[in-house]
Design goal:
Layout lengths: L28 H4 L8 E2 L2 E2 L10 H5 L4 E2 L2 H16 L8 E4 L8 H14 L4 E5 L8 H10 L1 E5 L7 H6 L6
Parallel strand pairs: 1-4, 4-5, 5-6
Antiparallel strand pairs: 2-3
Helix pairs in contact: 3-4, 4-5
């Protein structure tokens, strides 16, 4: 205002994230969803307990991990699949659970996977994960039963010194 920058401060993140998005609010998204470059996506949680210097996730969503209920996530998955596949013939039938740290709360992740299995949804899923999930046989079995066909893992550094300088505890 009058050449001055006015800030209202950092916005507090919403506490209740059990909201299923209305995908029709995005301009032309229904039309674009017919292209195989867009696939169904569901974000089941927000936040990250880690503090890696290079990552924007904490800046956007905060350190507190806030989760949606498993039932709400399953309903969002159903709606997302219907939105993307209901009116279009798609080659790729994969839904991306977009959480950066889906496994940060193991008990919650197990409950979500069990809810997907119990829902009877037959679809393929992909997810991002830290390497530790590869050592968790129970989690890997649940992922398989729920229909997960891909786990994307990022490998940011090879040298220990880089981990220390960016406050990265593991990859």
């Amino acid at each position: 205002k009058d050449g001055q920058i006015i800030t209202t401060g950092q916005r507090c993140p919403p506490k209740d994230i059990n909201v299923i998005p209305d995908r029709d609010l995005l301009y032309n998204y229904r039309k674009m969803a017919g292209h195989n470059t867009l696939w169904p996506q569901v974000h089941a949680s927000r936040g990250c307990p880690h503090n890696c210097d290079y990552c924007a996730l904490v800046r956007h969503f905060g350190h507190t991990v806030r989760t949606r209920t498993p039932e709400n996530i399953v309903e969002d998955i159903r709606r997302s699949i219907e939105f993307h596949d209901g009116t279009h013939r798609r080659i790729s039938k994969v839904l991306w659970l977009t959480d950066d740290n889906f496994f940060a709360d193991r008990a919650w992740a197990v409950s979500v996977l069990n809810a997907i299995i119990a829902s009877g949804i037959r679809y393929q899923f992909t997810i991002q994960a830290r390497y530790e999930v590869g050592y968790d046989d129970e989690m890997l079995e649940l992922l398989k039963k729920a229909g997960f066909v891909e786990i994307a893992m990022g490998i940011e550094f090879l040298e220990d010194q880089a981990f220390e300088s960016y406050h990265k505890k593991s990859t």
